[in-house]
Amino acid sequence: MTKRGFGARGIGVRGLVASAAAILVAVSLLVPVGPAVATEADRPVQLAFLGKLFGGGRGGCSPAGAVTDPDVSRNAAAIRAGGLCVSTETVSENGITWTFIAIENPRSQNGPVWYLPHDNESAAFDAAVYAVARYGGAMIALETGERREYRSIDPNRHFARDRGDAGPCRMRAATPRYTKTVMGFFDGKRHILAMHNNTRGGAVSASMRTAKSTGFRAKGPLADADNMVFIAGTRPIQSDRRGQNLRDMLLRAGLNVVYEHVTPQNSDCSFSNYVALNDRRDYFNIEAVHGSREQTAMVDRLMQVLGYRPVR
Questions:
Q1: 72-89 pLDDT per residue, tens
Q2: Cα 275–Cα 276–Cα 281 angle in degrees, nearest 5
Q3: How large is the C-alpha radius of gyration of the chain?
Q4: CA–CA separation, 242 vs 246, rounded Å?
C-alpha cells in the first residue's frame, strides 16, 4: 500500500520544509505554540493539523488508483465521479502499526467526518463514500486486510487513554496514541459519526433489550430491525433528556434507534463508549446488515435530521 500523509503532494522535500517553517512562524504570531519537539502521542494529531495548514484536500490526497486496497478499488468510479481523493496515514503503538485510509471531498472540507473501524464491512464503506461525495467532509477507514480484527484486536474496542480507561475492558495496555489520532480526525466537527455492518438476525438489532442497550423501532421502509442508528449517553434513557430528544428525532425520520447507557464500569472501550464518557458531542453510528442497500438512504435521513445539506 502506498503510504502517504494527509499533508503534501507536488512539492519537493526542501520546498515542504521551507513552506512549513514559514507557515509555523506566521501562525506563532497569532496563537501560542507548544513545545518545539512533539511527543509520540501528540504527533499524529499535529500531522493532521499541518495537513490542513498546507491547504488540505488535494495537498496530500491522490486519485483512487494510487492506493492499493479492495474497498477503494471497488469504489474507484464513485470516488472519481465525486471528485474525491484518497490518502493514508500510519500510526504505531504497542508494537502494532495501524493504517488509516482517508477519503476526502476537497471541494467541501467542512462536511461531516465518518469513522469505520472494521475492514470487513463493505456496505458501510460504500455508504461512507456516498456520504462524502454527497455531503462533503471525509471518511476514515482502518485497513486490516479485509478482516474485522487485526492481530487478535478489535479496532472498535481499542479506545483507552490510560490504565483507568483500559481496566474495565481488560485491555493489555492503554492506547493513547491510537485514541488521540482517531479523535483528532473530528477536530472542529459538530458530531462524531461512524458506520458499521451487522449480521442478519444477530444479537445486534433494534429489538434488543439488555442492561446496557435499549432498542426503539420506527415505522417505514427503513424499519428493518437489523438497521438502526446507535446513540449513547451516560444516564439511563429515562433520565437523559438529550438522549430522548435525539431518539425521537430519529424515530420521526423513520430510523430505528439503539440507546447505549454507558458508565465507567460497563465501558467496553468501544468508540461509542469512549465518546460518551469523554466528549460532549453527540455520537451517531449508522448500523445496517451486511450487504445492505439501505445504508445510503439511512445516511440521507440522518443528514437531514442533523441539518447537513448536499453539496451536489
A1: 999 999 999 999 999 999
A2: 70
A3: 19
A4: 6
What are 124's three cell numbers? 458501510
How many Å apart are CA 262 and CA 269, to the nearest integer?
10
What is the biggest distance separating any 2 CA atoms in the chain, rounded to whole angstroms?
Answer: 59
Global pTM? 0.82
Sign of torsion over alpha carbons 228, 233, 237, 242: negative
- 135 by DSSP, 3-state: which? helix
Q: How many residues does the chain have?
A: 312
| Pair type for strands 96-104 and 138-142 | antiparallel
Assess contact for 136 and 111: CB atoms under 8 A: yes
Other C-beta atoms lying within 10 Å of the C-beta of residue 153: 17
Q: How far apart (Å, rounded) are the C-alpha atoms in residues 55 and 11?
A: 13
Residue 83 is placed in which grid cell?
471528485
Cβ-contact 299, 137 below 8 angstroms: no
